Description:
- The chain is an alpha/beta fold.
- Helix content is 51%, strand content 13%.
- The chain has helices spanning 3-18, 20-33, 59-70, 83-102, 108-116, 141-154, 170-175, 211-223, 239-255, 261-272, 278-297, and strands spanning 51-55, 75-79, 118-120, 132-135, 160-163, 186-191, 200-205, 227-232.
- A hairpin with an 8-residue loop joins strand 6 (186-191) and strand 7 (200-205).
- The longest helix has 20 residues, at 83-102.
- It is globular, with a radius of gyration of 20 Å.
- The two termini are 24 Å apart.
Amino acid sequence: MTGVVWKDTFKVWYRAFQQYNLSVRLFKRMLSSKDTKNTSHSVVPRSNIQTIGVVGCGQMGSGIALVAAQYAEAKVLLYDSNPQVSAKALEYINSQVEKAVQKNQVNKEQSASILQRIGPVGNLEGLKDCDFVIEAVSENLSLKTNIFQKLAQITAADVILASNTSSISITKIASTIQESGRDDKVVGMHFFNPVPVMDIVELVVGLSTSAATVQITQSLAQKMNKKVSVVQDSPGFISNRVLMPYINEAICALQEGLASKEDIDQIMKLGTRVPMGPLTLADFIANWEMTNIDPVLC
């Protein structure tokens, strides 16, 4: 990072965590004061999942599609509003499958089967027959809620709608389709980047998320070769609630001149046996995640 970017990064993190404890308290107060429970939830979530829809074909969506096809052996339908992004996603998936063949992780026959299970659709309506849908667009609340509102109209009433959000409230997303009676089938399914490599999924339970939805989603994630940790809806969930103060303190230490970037990273990398130091990690996530998570935490 350049000095200017470090300065801007510090300002963002410092502002976020100066208000973090307050935001957690306000969020809990908001949830406890609202009656988001819907007593009319009578449709049991679909558990026989053969076809999975993925909305958003960027790095996360591409990875989710790959593990769904490779490990869960599901048919995967990909949708992105930009056809070029969809095309790049298919190129990425092809390259990853080819690498798996070269490493003897799958054979030629298996690789062909994986690729045959994945295909693009031209619009959201193309996902109407899916058994499960995972949204993986950028961290933008209005964009996500717009997609969920459309999916609630397009897909069957028993289909679970999952979000790959890393910070946005699942309860808030679910509340936008509460009138449809499907808010109990909205759940967080936070994969980590890169999806094919990272072993964990953070399963986020909103106020209205039913026990059946959690159970079915957990089973699906496990079929996708992921370990699952179930967490309650809260700002940043567990991953970013713990991660961001860690990175913030490293940036504060750098700003105060306590040590160089290299020494801070080396201490934490070698001393705690993490694969990369906090400042290297900040470089990795700053451009695509931090600026979107900041408004959520604040």
